[in-house]
Amino acid sequence: MLDPAPPASARPPWRRQSQAWALRALLAAALLVLTVIILLPLVSLLAQSVLDGQGRFVGAANLAAYLSSGRWHALGNSVAWSALSAVICVVLAYGYAWALTHAAMPAPGLWRALALLPLLAPSLLAAIGLVYAFGNQGLLKAPMHAVGIDSIYGPAGIVLGSVLWTFPHAMLILVTTLSSSDARLIEAARCLGARGGRVSLTVTLPASRYGVLISLVVVFVLVLTDFGVPKVVGGQTAMLATDIYKEVVGQQRLDRGAVVALLLLLPALGAFALEQRLRARQRAALSLRAVPHVPSPHAPRDLAALLYCSLIAMALVGVYGMAVYASFAQYWPYQLTPTLSHYQFDMSDGGGWASYGNSLRMAVWTALAGAGLTFVLAWLVDKPRGLRASRGLLNAIATLPMAVPGLALGLGYILFFNAPWNPLRGWYGGLGLLVLCTVAHYYSVAHLTQLGALRQLDPEYERVAESLGQPFWRHLWRVHLPIAVPTLVQVAGYFFVSALTTVSAVVFLYSPDTTLAAIAVLAMDDAGDTAPAAAMATLLFATAAIGRGVIGLLGHGLVQRTQRWRAR
Question: Is residue 565 over pLDDT 60?
């Protein structure tokens, strides 16, 4: 409870004014932070796209030079294969989500957990698993040829790898959508004589159309902006994500890289705008009188759902498990005797064990900084009264990274933080800049999550605190923070796993002293050390799982201390 205090009107005017000025200063600082870590790097990227290597304005000359080089078809490939991957992924994920929500399967938690495994690993691990399964020395090379696929290196590998690592993202969206199915509509259809698949086609599918469309857009953007899968199994297929890497790292052409980044940014922005429009329409379509659907046992349907989920889970676990097993195999596929020799990372390219230590430190700092920053800034967006324009601007900048590909953001960081005039230039190449870029890359999802949690609290709490003359920082510490502890823990776990597995946002920013484990996987694969690359990716997978568990345990302890009032 708040300490007894005289009414706000009885407090000295200077104290009320000091609190108002403190709130303005905090809001200004928040705008400055987001401007530096999000807005200015993107402005630098836009500016570089119209400048040449000497900093002279050339307009659209860089774009014309790129398109005339014969690599313009990279844009078409990126859009086409991303769209195909999105369609296949969403179709498969819809069946899986329907089985979890509309069938009475045994152990639904187990099947859900198996489908979420790719979230704990970098996309590189899915691509490496495909190499071990269907590559030149793959165990399943013959069946692949039997279905007419000559090589996994190319469009087939890009689509398969993208479907594998984006599957849980689509599944989570669709499970949420299908979980809100209205049981009244399903019962009405059955009373009218509809049975089995007809109910799904006439009731369930139309009711979930916005969720399907949103998941299509989300998967499309994820595949479009992914760098790991096309780098490992893309072969000679031109993609925008790999073209940026070639221009910046291979040819040191930042101006040309900025043009490619803008080409990558345009379809991502369009997809983001479409996704926001779909979400708005989805919210408006929800019914307050809806009754949650609870599936009743039906043996044929439940058996079919179980078989379907088993096949999907087998494919996911099989590809990832093959990469994990290959990391312990003596010499794939001829000598499969287990060994730990591939985990001697100091004998391979990529920075050795030091890169793993850097990734672990970056993940911890990203979790702490990201959770704290998103909570305070979400509070500034939602809780204070007044300053509406500034709070709206803060919210707009906070949601901007959702539409920005990681490669574009990372290139913007090079151009901004490495500029000769920038007083923050000393941060370039350091671990602190990697933390900032990772926080900025994944900021929007965490911000929206924190905002949703804070909006559950009735505004009457703020009015009571104001009437008692309590300063906003005391109310923030004693009321909002304890209530937001469960969400803070979830956001910290999200940042931790994302920092461990990210590649695209930091691939341009590391130095020899700050090489990361995910980047080391890329370097090992480039050097032909596929087994050590699989070993490092496996280590990241295990670390993400253990770290998420530790954060969950710490969060459980905090919840027990701060949320006892929720229990009866």
Answer: no
CA atoms within 13 A on the CB side of 345: 26
Q: Six-digit token pair at 219?
A: 């998967």
Q: Tell me the three state secondary structure of residue 409.
A: helix
**Residue 338 region, left (φ>0) first, then alpha (ψ -120 to 50), else beta?**
beta
- What pLDDT was estimated at residue 440? 94
Which helix (H) or strand (E) element contains residue 382?
A: helix 352-382
Going by C-alpha positions, the residue among 371, 64, 402 that lies closest to residue 214 is 402
Handedness of CA 279, 285, 287, 291 (dihedral sign): negative
Residue 488 contacts residue 439 (beta carbons within 8 Å): no
Intrachain domains 18-47+348-568 and 60-326 with the same fold: yes
Residue 460 burial (CB count, 10 A)? 8
Q: Which residue has the tokens 């087994």?
A: 531
Residues 6+ apart with CB under 8 A from 541: 120, 121, 125, 320, 324
For the stretch 518-552, pLDDT in tens is: 999 988 888 888 889 999 999 999 999 999 889 88
Domain boundaries, the chain: 18-47+348-568, 60-326
pLDDT tens-place string over residues 313-359: 999 999 999 999 999 988 887 888 888 888 888 777 767 888 999 99
Cα separation values, 43 from 191, 415, 424, Å: 59, 9, 16
Residue 199 half-sphere exposure toward CB, CA atoms < 13 A: 19
CATH superfamily of 60-326: MetI-like (1.10.3720.10)
User: b/e string for 274-292 if b means 16 or more Cβ within 10 A?
Assistant: bbeebeeebeeeeeeeeee
- Specify the long-range contacts of residues 150-156, CB closer than 8 Å, at least 24 apart: 151/235, 152/233, 153/233, 153/234, 153/235, 153/236, 154/233, 154/234, 154/235, 154/236, 154/237, 155/77, 155/81, 155/237
DSSP letter at 351 equals -
Return the pLDDT at 395. 86
- Do 480 and 19 touch, CB atoms closer than 8 A? no
DSSP type of residue 295 = P
How far apart are the two ends of the chain, measured CA to CA in Å? 18
Q: Which CATH number fits domain 18-47+348-568: 2.40.160.60, 1.10.10.10, 1.10.3720.10, 3.30.70.20?
A: 1.10.3720.10
